[in-house]
Specification:
The complex is a heterotrimer. Chain A has eight helices and 16 strands. By secondary structure, chain A is an alpha/beta fold. Chain A has a seven-stranded parallel β-sheet, with helices on both faces. A five-stranded parallel β-sheet of chain A has the order 13-12-14-15-16. A three-stranded antiparallel β-sheet of chain A has the order 6-7-8. By secondary structure, chain B is of the alpha/beta class. In chain B, α2 packs across α5 and α3 packs across α4. Chain B has helices at 37-51, 68-75, 95-109, 129-137, 190-196, 241-254; strands at residues 2-6, 9-11, 17-18, 24-25, 31-33, 54-61, 81-86, 112-117, 140-151, 154-161, 164-170, 174-178, 201-203, 217-224, 234-237. Chain C starts with 9 loop residues before the first strand and ends with a helix. Helices cover 35% and strands 29% of the residues of chain C. By secondary structure, chain C is α+β, with helices and mostly antiparallel strands. The chains are: A alpha/beta, B alpha/beta, C alpha+beta. The interface between B and C is medium-sized, with 17 and 25 residues. Bound molecules: flavin-adenine dinucleotide (2 copies) and adenosine monophosphate. One flavin-adenine dinucleotide sits between chains A (198-200, 224-226, 239-244, 256-258, 260, 262-263, 276-279, 282, 295-297) and B (35, 120, 122, 125).
């Protein structure tokens, strides 16, 4: 297949696309978006400042956006862009999977840099959970790229019309209900200080110790994966790591967290990392700036008290 | 009917060594059933027990994935039988290649209406293979599935999405990637492992499968090892918590991060 | 699956896929017995630390071609003994091509070697069952009323066999649970801290003076263990080094240091820096080692059960080397022969299994255990780990340093050094004598 020098993005019901648009503009001046989902989504993509919006039409009642994946793939294949970018979260993966399958092209995740050299696209990715980096040249067709979505930004660029494309969504799945979460998802990426706790915590009630410290230090609460899943003591969107959020705060305090690879890639870019752990051989002590070897149940209250005292 | 569980026999990168030039050496990291795939085995077994379906495990990869250890590890987790494609032409295969091979195997098995997969593999951690498999098959693909059960004419599925829990009914063939904590998988006992050795295993040759060829390829220009981040590693003894806390707070204030 | 309470599931259950367990399972399966080999690690070897020097002649009697077949790292042709003081290292280097032909000792990495050995047992027909931790033994009163082991329990499952082999390593929870071994006193145990350091082949060859598949084994004493009873070792693998310290548990507890501190002290010693420079730590952990010597070997058989390898207390710490792998293999040979005989005769009672102890006593295993019976006592003498190292270094320093002064007779040097050293002459002579007899 002969790929053009155009860059496309695919959007499925997640209007947080400005990250995709910014990345797409690295690769080409013009950006086309393929949108599955409600018209409102298509409108917000227009507002994010793209040059062309192809919308697959209003979904019938109960049709999940994932049912449009084959349509999205066909639309992208017809356009034969040099690169197509989508969200690495949720429905984005489903869209990219359908595109990668139709084009028989590898799906590229963990992308840290994109470059264009003439008609070729170079992609730098972190691989195997972040232990290594690899720079590849994509040849033979479209580069299929998964990226974290980013924020909804203020309207930019000129308004373009929403072009409707006929679609033939799968009819094998039907939505029957939604139990909304009580709290809106948090964005830890914006926090300057983050206090995270892991499996060193013995009981849910003891969380107060950690939130007290977070309050004293003026930080957001976060956790390692086992506290968000399995025990559900802390909301999943506060999980830090390869399958949670990747953050770069000025100060990251890890309490009762062993420091395994899958967690630590989430805070690799933090300025200062502090660890509290009772095991002096814990991996995290090799990856922190300051560490206290001790029981969190005595160290954390002492820290909270020390922060309250004036310097 | 048949439920397929796509699972991976993979090493944990935590145990891999990265050479200074960025190439990864997995020889010291032992492979096991990928961390979250037992969740898919367990869900599949529970659904099959309620519908009378059989559960077939499918895994594809290089030659090293077919050992008696690997077979027993999978078959002792509630499978009825196993289909393996183990070929060194799949060394380092990307998610689309793996999904293409998986798709031909699923088609060959025949009466499959459900493929279950883990959230993400322990080595690659992209959560992409299963959704690409859905694309190859032209089936509905759903990730973040926290619950599956048989319901009238199909399956009742719940998904864990940022806004909440979505419930759905799936009436046609589908590929579902589970959340890591959808169920607590069983730990195989001695009888499960003994029983595993008696279950059928089919080894398919890559040549016997009509796998579409890759259209887009990657040429690796360079590899590198991410800078370990020069952390200061100032370790404070916390046996006197008050003194340790004072020392840390003092240091953080001096470093102007407080 | 249900099993008739009286009909065993297997002829033999072997618990632990270390060297003792895998060799026992292999030799029994070879003879057509039905054998299950149960290992708590997901993969054999995954629970066994790094590696060491295997005195491999005994393995050759089981696998004549093991040198070509097994994942051995290097054939040891250089044995170096190093005495460390805080700032110097003195080495005695014994290197001879004679050591390579026939091959006496090889270095192995357990993570690879155990997989191979368990694989041999599996090929021979044993059922390998990894990822299962045996929780307890099943016992029943035998015909004579005495407790008889009839199987094992793990989780909710039970398996039965005519004979159970406890090859579960130094802690042998199984042997202890039936009173075959008392909980060892701390002066019969040592803590080993081991690590594997990756180092390019070229560096290993130039630093250790070896080439091809040849390798070196360094034993290190003196200022390497913070004065705690014990010693260190440094072995070459193909593209890595195994190194570590072995510390007497009672002494360690007394010292107030942790094993890790002693290990770090060891690796940072200037005398070792030249070998380790630029290496990358890739594996690290600690493990107990039995070092009570002959007195620690307890009962090795009861009705329906044998204890093999380090589970039976079979290990030797000579002060310069730790041996356990070859003894484990030796005991496995004795155990498998005895079990085959007992199963054939239909008598798997303690009396029927008595051939095990007899074979052990006749083999090199018990002979070496007796020869080194005094080693633990020798090692208990505190001077071995601190002052002597300095003393020896001092002697050799004076003998070798060409500073223009006339060379003194070595004995005079020794006496001078002794005056400066905190060790009394009488004690030195007596320890030296104990040492000669023990080693
Ligand atoms: C594909 C994949 C993706 C993953 N994604 C993520 C991810 O996004 N985020 C994530 O976090 N993990 C992730 N993981 C899991 C990860 O591998 C680890 O299992 C997890 O991070 C461990 O969490 P932890 O450190 O809280 O628990 P543990 O490893 O159990 O550590 C608990 C620590 O608490 C210490 N402790 C215990 N008691 C006390 C006390 N009283 N005082 C002080 N310290 C104490 C212990 O010494 C220990 O170091 C993933 C794994 C896989 C396979
Ligand atoms: C620091 C150090 C250095 C050493 N260096 C050397 C050396 O250079 N040369 C040498 O010859 N020896 C050396 N040794 C001693 C040697 O490692 C042991 O003597 C040897 O491994 C004993 O073999 P084994 O088969 O009896 O037991 P192990 O090798 O310990 O095997 C026991 C197996 O049983 C399994 N197991 C235990 N409990 C259970 C259970 N309940 N259920 C299921 N499985 C179970 C374990 O996971 C393990 O795989 C060293 C030891 C140490 C600690
Ligand atoms: N080689 C493979 N064979 C079978 N299933 C796989 C394979 N690789 C990945 N999977 C499945 O796809 C899921 C996601 O993997 P990944 O995209 O690599 O994160 C895994 O949890 C498995 O269920």
């Amino acid at each position: 297949m002969n790929a053009s020098s155009q860059t496309w993005i695919v959007v499925a019901d997640d209007p947080a696309v400005s990250g995709l648009v910014v990345a797409a503009r690295i690769l080409s001046a013009e950006v086309t978006a393929v949108v599955a989902g409600r018209r409102a989504t298509a409108e917000s993509v227009v507002a994010a400042g793209v040059d062309r919006v192809l919308w697959l039409g209003e979904p019938a009642e109960g049709t999940p956006v994932e049912a449009y994946a084959p349509d999205v793939a066909r639309t992208v294949a017809a356009g034969a862009p040099g690169a197509v970018l989508g969200s690495s979260e949720g429905a984005g993966r489903v869209m990219l999977g359908a595109i990668a399958a139709l084009l028989q092209a590898p799906g590229l995740s963990g992308v840290t840099a994109l470059e264009r050299d003439g008609n070729q696209i170079g992609v730098t990715r972190s691989v195997f959970g972040g232990i290594a980096e690899r720079r590849d040249l994509v040849t033979g067709g479209t580069a299929v790229i998964a990226l974290a979505g980013g924020e909804i930004s203020d309207p930019t660029g000129l308004a373009v019309p929403v072009e409707e494309v006929t679609a033939n969504a799968l009819t094998t799945g039907r939505l029957t209900g939604l139990r909304p979460k009580e709290k809106a998802p948090v964005n830890l990426r914006a926090a300057r200080t983050v206090v995270a706790v892991g499996r060193g915590l013995k009981a849910k009630d003891d969380l107060a110790l950690i939130t007290d410290l977070a309050d004293a230090i003026g930080g957001e609460l976060a956790c390692s994966r086992p506290l968000a899943e399995g025990v559900h003591w802390i909301a999943k969107d506060r999980n830090i790591g390869i399958s949670g959020q990747q953050i770069a705060p000025e100060l990251y305090v890890a309490i009762g967290i062993s420091g395994q690879l899958q967690h630590m890639v989430g805070v690799r870019d933090a300025d200062v990392i502090v660890a509290v752990n009772s095991d002096k051989d814990a991996l995290i002590f090799k990856q922190c700036d300051y560490g206290i070897v001790g029981d969190l149940y005595t160290v954390v209250p002492a820290l909270t008290a020390a922060l309250a005292a004036k310097p | 009917m048949t439920i397929v569980v796509a699972y991976k026999w993979a090493p944990n990168p935590q145990d891999a060594a990265v050479r200074s030039e960025g190439t990864v050496d997995f020889t010291r990291a032992k492979s096991t059933i990928s961390e979250y795939d037992p969740v898919a085995f367990e869900l599949a077994r529970r659904v099959a027990d309620s519908t009378g379906a059989q559960v077939v495990g499918v895994t594809v990869g290089d030659a090293s994935i077919d050992t008696s250890l690997a077979r027993k590890a999978a078959l002792s987790r509630g499978l009825d039988r196993l289909v393996i494609v183990a070929d060194d032409r799949l060394v380092g295969a990307d998610s689309t290649r793996l999904a293409a091979v998986l798709a031909t195997v699923v088609r060959r098995i025949g009466d499959v209406d459900l493929v279950l997969a883990g959230e993400s593999s322990v080595d690659v951690t992209e959560g992409q293979v299963a959704m690409t498999l859905a694309g190859q098959l032209g089936w509905l693909g759903l990730n973040a599935v926290s619950s599956v059960s048989a319901s009238d004419g199909g399956y009742a599925v719940e998904r864990d999405v940022p806004s909440g829990t979505v419930s759905m009914v799936v009436t046609g063939p589908a590929v579902l990637a589970t959340t890591a904590d959808a169920v607590l998988p069983r730990v195989p006992g001695m009888k499960d492992i003994l029983g595993a050795a008696k279950k059928p295993v089919e080894v398919l040759s890559l040549d016997a499968l009509d796998v579409p060829s890759a259209q887009v390829t990657l040429t690796t220009l360079s590899t590198s090892r991410p800078a370990a981040g020069n952390r200061q590693r100032v370790i404070i003894d916390g046996s006197d918590p008050t003194a340790a806390a004072a020392e840390l707070v003092g240091a953080l204030r001096a470093a102007k991060v407080l | 699956m249900t099993s008739d309470a009286t009909e065993p599931d297997f002829d033999v259950i072997v618990v632990g896929a270390g060297l003792a367990g895998s060799v026992t399972a292999y030799r029994l399966a070879e003879r057509g017995l039905s054998v299950v080999l149960i290992e708590r690690g997901d993969v054999p070897g995954s629970k066994n630390l790094s590696g060491g020097v295997l005195y491999g002649r005994v393995l050759e009697t089981v696998f004549p071609d093991y040198l070509d077949e097994a994942p051995v790292e290097r054939r040891v042709t250089r044995h170096v003994t190093t005495f460390l003081t805080p700032d110097s290292a003195v080495s005695l280097d014994y290197s001879a091509d004679g050591l390579a032909e026939p091959v006496n000792a090889v270095t192995v990495l357990r993570a690879k070697f155990d997989v191979w050995l368990a694989g041999k047992a599996e090929e021979a027909g044993a059922f390998l069952m990894p990822g299962v931790r045996v929780d307890s033994l099943l016992t029943e009163p035998g015909p004579d009323g005495a407790a008889t082991v009839v199987g094992v329990r793990a989780g909710d499952d039970e398996l039965r066999a005519r004979v159970v082999v406890a090859a579960d390593g130094v802690n042998s929870f199984l042997a202890r649970s039936v009173g075959l071994r008392p909980k060892p006193p701390t002066n019969h145990l040592a803590v080993g801290v081991k690590a594997v350091i990756r180092l390019p082949r070229v560096d290993i060859e130039s630093r250790f003076g070896v080439s091809g598949d040849r390798g070196a084994a360094h034993a290190i004493v003196g200022d390497c263990t913070l004065g705690i009873g014990g010693g260190g070792f440094l072995y070459t693998n193909t593209e890595s080094l195994s190194l570590g310290v072995v510390l007497r548990l009672d002494d360690l507890l007394r010292s107030g240091h942790t094993a890790i501190e002693a290990f770090e002290h060891f690796t940072q010693h200037p005398g070792l820096a030249q070998y380790l420079r630029g290496g990358e730590l890739i594996e690290y952990g600690s493990h107990l080692v039995a070092e009570g010597g002959y007195p620690m070997v307890g009962e090795v058989a009861m009705n329906g059960m044998l204890v093999a390898g380090e589970a039976a207390g079979l290990a030797i710490n000579s002060g310069l080397t730790v041996r356990g792998m070859d003894l484990a293999i030796g005991s496995a040979i004795a155990a498998s022969d005895a079990i085959a005989e007992a199963v054939a005769s239909g008598d798997t009672s303690e009396a029927g299994l008595a051939g095990y102890r007899r074979r052990l006593d006749e083999s090199f295993v018990m002979q070496d255990m007796r020869t080194y019976a005094r080693a633990p006592k020798f090692l208990e003498r505190p001077g071995m780990y601190g002052p002597y190292g300095e003393l020896i270094a001092d002697v050799l320093h004076h003998a070798f340093s060409l500073d223009g002064t006339p060379r003194q007779h070595l004995l005079t040097v020794a006496r001078h050094a002794l005056k400066r050293s905190p060790v009394a002459l009488r004690q030195l002579i007596s320890d030296g004598w104990a040492g000669v007899r023990a080693l």
